[in-house]
Amino acid sequence: MYRLLLLCLIIVYFGSGCNRAKFEAGDNSPFTSPISMQNLKVNLEFLASDELEGRDTGSKGLDLAALYLKSEMKKGNIGYLDELGGYYQEFDLQFTQFVDTTQIRLIDKDGRPIVSFQYYYDFIGSSRYYPPLDTTVNLVFAGYGIEAEEYNYNDYDSLEVDGKIVLVMPGEPESEDSSFFDGRKDTRYSSLYSKAATAKRKGALGIILASKSEGKYGWDKMVEWVGKGSFKLIDDQDTSQIKRHRLPSAVIKTSTLDSFLVRENYSLAMIDELTDQGKPVPKFEFTAKVDVNWQFKTDSLVRTKNVVGFIAGQDPKLKEEYVAICCHYDHVGEASNGIYYGADDNASGTVAVLEVAKAVAFNKGIKRSVLFIFHTAEEKGLLGSRYFVANSKTREKIVALINLDMVGRGPADSIYNIGADALSKEFSELVEEANNESVNLVFDYRFNDINHPERLYYRSDHYSYAKYDIPSVFFFDYMTEDYHKITDTADKINYAKLARITELSYQILVKTANRPDRPALNKIANK
User: Fold this and answer.
1) Residue-by-residue DSSP string for 208-245
2) What are 23-66's pLDDT values in tens digits?
3) Average pLDDT of 411-427?
4) Which of 503, 475, 457 is nearest to 407 (CA)?
5) In angstroms, rounded to a whole number, what is the distance separating the alpha carbons of residues 262 and 245?
6) Which CATH number fits domain 100-294: 3.50.30.30, 2.60.200.30, 3.10.580.10, 3.40.1260.20?
7) Residue 341: per-residue pLDDT
């Protein structure tokens, strides 16, 4: 109780202090709005502090972050949506976790067990994207599990996998020729999502993938994160492409692959030798059948909340339309090795949205209304943003959206611009103009292709809005060295860069809010 009271006092102290510094900093700001680098720093250091314990969904730390955002907006004269009746949009998530008896077995033609694989020790699975599976069927080794017409490559050309489970290798074919699967760079075909989508299209009941991330994170760390379970929206109405491609999936240790191959004509060493020589990966149906029982516990609910601020527009007609700026304020919490502070991911975007909100309130006179949306549970599958767009009456009023997710690291003078032209070339041009007229950052469009193998267009909260034809821009710094590590700390943030991104976001918002017409959609929207 003492600790909670202390944290509440910290919120009040920082809140009043930040508010005062905000308006004193305006005259000396290098920007046309009163954006304060000091405010950004103070707010971020609090959100990424020990006391907030990594802001995991459903945690006390995330609740304190929500209270902090609410307090700051109240002090900054930022209101809330009448339909919500306050700053919070609260809802329940269903907690989901594999049961300990989840298993995979190989059995012979007479049903006798050959080898059994133990959950956690030999394999893991994410329960986020697929239903339970309990069956005994044929097992097919499908190489990399890739069908790519543009490369004249098809691992399924000699296989029949309908009603079976496929086992596939990680990655994709490599070569020195950049015209073939981009040489040694990964394409979109290397992802589990792509492999599962292909297997489902071919009629497979499930997919088992040899681990690709084991070398990067370590098997024990992968097991720890999967052991924390996942969350689902209750009565999820999502009909997106991602949901349509969900398929029961498991990931096995690389070394476990040898145990699968124990009665076949190939070993893992033989397959590795073939790939090293640039020869085709073998494809065949196992002599054994596979018996799988993948079941989940779904008997508990977790209460969480989006935090939403609102400022009404001043134009009698245009105020019925909204411009939105958003971020996610959650992170991934704690683990055995410490607190995952999430300073860049995404305390950086959170404090930027908060600072933009205060600048709009301070300068006044904006024509359209503005939404400031702090989403929860982005790290759990964009759940907060998906809930907002599905359950808020304001969705159809939103003319454009700015999404800030990781904007405080990387090169000081550039930022990745993703998705601005996917739905509206006009909005993309507006974003460029706002940048040229203000902070002059270099826009890097490397990840802007919606078919880029890393699929960043689909991996942050703007996508929940883009599915409803809302033009959106996603700013992102692609920090990799500390991504989802305990080393993503506040001392590594480039606050000068963060201030420039905040100013840019403010200028885009004002420019969009004050234009006579909403940004026109492309004739053919790409989603």
Assistant:
1) EEE-SSHHHH-HHHHHHHHHT-EEEETT----SHHHHT
2) 333 444 567 788 999 999 999 999 999 999 999 999 999 999 99
3) 97
4) 475
5) 31
6) 3.50.30.30
7) 98
**Residue 474 near residue 418 (C-beta atoms within 8 A):** yes
pTM of the model as a whole = 0.86
Contacts of 361 (CB under 8 A, 6+ apart): 76, 77, 78, 311
Q: How buried is residue 48: exposed, middle or buried, by Cβ count under 10 Å (0-12/13-18/19+)?
A: buried
For residues 39 and 174, which has the higher predicted lDDT (pLDDT)? 39
Q: Three-state DSSP class for 484?
A: coil
Residue ranges, CATH 3.40.630.10, the chain: 2-94+300-514
pLDDT at 180 over 80: no
Alpha carbon of 491 to those of 24, 109, 202, 338, 413: distances in Å? 24, 60, 49, 17, 19
Which residues fall within 8 angstroms of residue 118, CB to CB, at 6 or more apart? 103
**Cα–Cα distance measured from residue 250 to residue 119, given in angstroms and rounded to the nearest whole number:** 10
Distance, in Å, from the CA atom of 302 to the CA atom of 228, rounded to the nearest integer, reads 13
Which residue do the tokens 């681990």 mark? 211
Mean pLDDT over residues 398-403, rounded? 98
State the Cα–Cα distance between residues 409 and 501, nearest whole angstrom.
11
User: Cβ(112)–Cβ(254) under 8 Å?
Assistant: no
Task: Count Cα neighbours of 174 within 13 Å in the Cβ-side half-sphere.
Answer: 11
User: How much of the chain exceeds pLDDT 90, in percent?
Assistant: 65
φ, ψ of residue 44 to 5 degrees: the values are -65, -40
Residue extent(s) of CATH 3.50.30.30 domains in the chain:
100-294
Cα 9 from Cα 116, distance rounded (Å): 55
Check: CB of residue 469 under 8 Å from CB of residue 423. Answer: yes
For 526, the token pair is 């790409």
DSSP assignment of 189-211 equals GGSHHHHHHHHHHTT-SEEEEE-
pLDDT digits (tens, 9 = 90+) for 440-487: 999 999 999 998 878 899 999 999 999 999 999 999 999 999 999 999
Task: Assign 428 to helix, strand or coil.
Answer: helix
Strand pairing report for 103-107 and 113-118: antiparallel
What are the tens digits of pLDDT across the range 250-288? 999 888 888 999 888 888 889 888 888 878 889 999 999
Q: Are 162 and 306 in contact (CB under 8 A)?
A: no
Domain 2-94+300-514 class in CATH: alpha beta
